[in-house]
Amino acid sequence: MFNSSFLKSTGKMLAIGAALLHLISCTSMTTEHTTTQSKQYPYTTVPGDSLHTRIYTLKNGLTVYMSPYHDEPRIYTSIAVRAGSKNDPAETTGLAHYLEHMLFKGTDSIGSLDYAKEHTELEKIIELYEKYRATSDPERRAAIYRDIDSLSNVAAQYTVPNEYDKLLNSIGAKGTNAYTWVEQTVYINDIPSNELDRWLTIEAERFRNPVMRLFHTELETVYEEKNMTMDSDSRKLWEELFEGLFTKHTYGTQTTIGLAEHLKKPSIKNVINYYRSWYVPNNMAICIAGDFDPDETIRMIDQKFSKLEPKAVPEFVPPVEPAIAAPVIKTVTGPEAEELVLGFRFGGADSDDADMLTLIDKILYNQTAGLIDLNLNQQQKVLEGGSMLVLMKDYSTHILSAKPRDGQSLDEVRELLLEQLDLVKKGEFPDWLLQAVINDLKLEDLKALESNRGRSEAFVDAFVWGMDWQRYVNRFARLESITKEQLVEFAKKHYGSNYVAVYKKHGERKSEGKIQKPPITPIKVNRDRSSAFAEQLLSKKSKELKPDFLDFKKDIGYYDLTPEIRLHTVPNRENEMYNLYFLFDTGSNQNRKIDTALDYLSYLGTSRLTPAEFSQELYRLGAEFTVLTADDRVYLKLSGLRENFPQAIALLDELLADAQPDAPALEKLKEGIRKERADDKLAKRKILFEAMVSYGKYGPKSPFTNVLSEEELERLTPEELIAEIKRFMSYRHRVLYYGPDSPEILMKELRTMSHFGQQFQPVPESEPFTELETAKNRVYVVDYDMNQAEIIMLSRGETYDASMVPLITLFNEYYGGGMSSVVFQEMREAKALAYSVFSVYRQPKEKNKHSYIFSYIGTQADKLPEALEGFGELMQKLPESPELFASAKAGIDQKIRTEHITKADILFSLEEMRKLGLNYDIRKDVFREVPGMTFEDIEKFHETRLRNKPHTMLVLGKKNNLDLETLGKYGEVSFLTLEEIFGY
User: Fold this and answer.
1) pLDDT for position 162
2) Residue 873: Cβ within 10 Å count
3) How far apart, in whole angstroms, are the C-alpha atoms of residue 918 and residue 801?
4) Are 670 and 714 in contact (CB under 8 A)?
5) What is the pLDDT of residues 725-775, one digit of tens each?
6) Spatial CA neighbour of 289 closest among 547, 576, 52, 559
7) What are the boundaries of each domain within the chain?
8) What integer is the mean pLDDT of 259-273?
9) The two domains 328-451+462-506 and 552-757 share their CATH topology (first three levels equal)
10) pLDDT band at 513; cut points 50, 70, 90
11) How far apart are CA 230 and CA 248, in angstroms?
């Protein structure tokens, strides 16, 4: 389970969320319908809603949102409860989030072998926790905890841990997870359409009577999650921002994960009472989108969920926040890069404020032609300037943020951001920008609604916000009725000194004290047993679906743009959007300058257009141009709406052929690169998952360290980089297109581009990088200020072998690739040694590269000895479970049967296969061979590929907290500097 205690998603947040497939006309009515079957199920629809949403309310108050979408035989499901951290009692914060975790533990049926006996022990444990909570004497608390630990092991004899996850895996579910935020807890799954009945059976049972079993090991997992959040500078930044904006509302007075002091005093009784208060059908919604029959589905939902009894839901009265009369300045320190965040408070998602904010947010920042885009990012006055909305039921926030350039103060960053707001208040933005912003929002909707997930998430938003679906559907009509004058007046009235500014500075982190590990006896994992519920459920057979494999000869159109340039096309028959890619089989491995050259291109104009004019023209056309670079590949991507495709192509061609040098822009770019490199050396994930992993595979000379030196960077000239771009465009490449135009029309437009009139050159040879053979155990440590220790273990395996793919797929599914795997069960469920843990045999993306045993664990530093010992045991012996093995095989089978690769993904599947030396869909082999495999097959694989293999251990943690003696048992310990792993 993941936790979103400060934001629902990362990156640029779409203000209103996903909704309509086409332009919606305003309507002032909804339509009521009834089904024609013997039992009537009235539902409402909204005229003009191209999602064809049906909204039902069952007799017990359960709300059901449905959107049929038959793109593939799968259904994305979200079960939303209108209860989050804002509803936590002040004395037990973190309770909603903890209950989310417990909803994966099963019921008196799911995961139960003998509930009568288990219940007796659980009642004793509940009472012991109350005593533990009320006791302050450390010795007495320790004694009570020993009793809890002992009784928990007795109770565990009667359970099957993680049976819920095993059941979902058996029916082919993907993405099984949940999240808790301020006013919602949402449980998500992506299921095969033929498994709807069994999924509903599982979920109805799951919410009927959840049992608080394995409480102490899951509590330790939440402790680990809390410790992990205390290592996050960004988490602390957002918590401080919300604390400043909301001095009375629980949005700011408490956090989703809760205070450490509350987590140290848990109460199972409080968790049960919270469930009974809020988890009632009249406070829940089932939101589904995908391949199903609505009439049949609502009958099934009613049949299974009608057992849930409604009752009155506690009323939450939002406190009235006092006006912010003067800027509130707060400071956060930590080891990561400096940043400034500004926040303004507004009305909730269902208020008129939200519409105004949606437009202002985009006028400021749309990643192409917003005021922050043009005035700050393109002119390189700050790093990563942006704007985003956080819409919530009671209040919303508008957030501006940026990172400083080298030598720039956070005060200067603040003034620059506020200046952009002043421009909005003065109306100093082009008149056409308002309509362009609305068109951009519609385009974002088109993209979001190409997935069942986007549709389902729109329903969740509307339900949680208490927003009528008609209002949600009609939002574009409302946005188009807002004039520039109204927007300016709104900005003048609402943006002043009424903000909270959080200064994230580099320094020693200040946080709550870490939660120390308690003594936990590993519980018995009954992985070779199943509950009666599971046996009965899995004995029912669902309708079998035939898999749909790609046939690259039929599914893709192949054309010659020139004698040397091939065009690959897949038609878009769903909407008017296109995605066009120029794909080059060359990257920074062949040319260390190309990344900088293509980055420089984004700051240039042409003989006709300034850089700002170019960006504005592109945005007016509803088009977006991005560059994606990698070690050995580069994608130039143009996307947008079909009607403006010819103009967008001409504009891109103009830039590629006529980019004008700009010396000041290059000097600023160089300064920015230096600052970004310095910031990267402060970023925890960048250090571990990129720099250290690359060092572990290659040593000091690697694709990661293959960057321009400081001297080389300094010597670059504008003319040199523009020449690099022109040279780059002369290399042979492919053009990929997913869109509505016919190949004939497309080729006619593409051939107008200047670079297609030249003779193309073969791509240059790549600089060789040799993957190191792991001859002996090594331990590399990087000292970093953090509570946890994060560990990756690498062992080099064999080069890519397509014949091994089915076996490796099955092994990973069983061993360590998900929540029902043996690694997850042993390390998290049984021993509570980590919040996040996995271990897989990771295959390469190129046929001449090596596979790696890739294992990860993030754990409290004082658990390091037990964590490493646990991993070592799993490396030496593969635990056997017939039930888990059958679940792994069934899950693979169902996922392949219902996974239809569609749209632009077809093009990229071909590219992936070609890099591996294949010309067909490798899933065919997996589907054919996995059913005949035995446990002995994966056991032998484990013995030959994992057992006793030399490894490279990568450890990121605070040196003073690490047990170096223990680390020394796993290899020769070496401390690495940031300069060594980054190469600069």
Assistant:
1) 87
2) 11
3) 11
4) yes
5) 999 999 999 999 999 999 999 999 999 999 898 889 999 888 789 999 888
6) 52
7) 53-318+515-539, 328-451+462-506, 552-757, 778-982
8) 86
9) yes
10) low
11) 23
Looking at the DSSP assignment, which residues form a beta bridge with residue 558? Answer: 568
Q: Give the CA distances from residue 526 to residues 153, 521, 812, 816, in Å, rounded to whole numbers and listed in that order.
A: 12, 15, 20, 17
Model confidence pLDDT, tens digit, residues 845-888: 999 899 999 999 988 888 888 888 888 888 899 999 898 899 99
pLDDT in tens, 24-38: 223 234 566 765 455
Superfamily of domain 778-982: Metalloenzyme, LuxS/M16 peptidase-like (3.30.830.10)
846 backbone dihedrals φ, ψ, rounded to 5°:
-130, 145
Signed CA dihedral, 77, 83, 84, 88: sign only: negative
Rounded to whole angstroms, the Cα distance separating 217 from 221 reads: 6
The H or E element spanning position 32 is: strand 31-33
Of residues 918, 937, 776, the one with CA closest to residue 843: 918
Q: Kindly state the DSSP code that residue 255 receives in the 8-state scheme.
A: -
Report the distance separating Cα 456 and Cα 451, nearest Å: 9
Non-local CB neighbours of 9 within 8 Å, separated by 6+ positions: none
Q: How far is CA 523 from the centre of its chain?
A: 31
Alpha carbon 149 to its chain centroid, in Å, reads 35
Could you give the CA distance from residue 630 to residue 587 in angstroms, rounded to a whole number?
6
CATH number of the 328-451+462-506 domain: 3.30.830.10
872, 793 Cβ separation under 8 angstroms: no
For tokens 């632009």, name the residue.
904
pTM strictly above 0.85: yes
Q: Determine the longest span between alpha carbons in the chain, in angstroms.
A: 83
DSSP state of 47: T
Closest to 288 (Cα-Cα) out of 177, 190, 185, 167: 190
Query: Tokens 């997996």 sit at which residue?
Result: 926
Q: What is the pLDDT of residue 806?
A: 98
* Superfamily grouping for domain 53-318+515-539: Metalloenzyme, LuxS/M16 peptidase-like (3.30.830.10)
Contact 112/155 with Cβ under 8 angstroms?
no
pLDDT surpasses 90 at 321: yes
CATH number attached to the domain at 552-757: 3.30.830.10
- Residue 21 sits at φ, ψ, to 5 deg, of -85, -30
- The residues near 843 (Cβ < 8 Å, ≥ 6 apart) are 800, 805, 808, 851
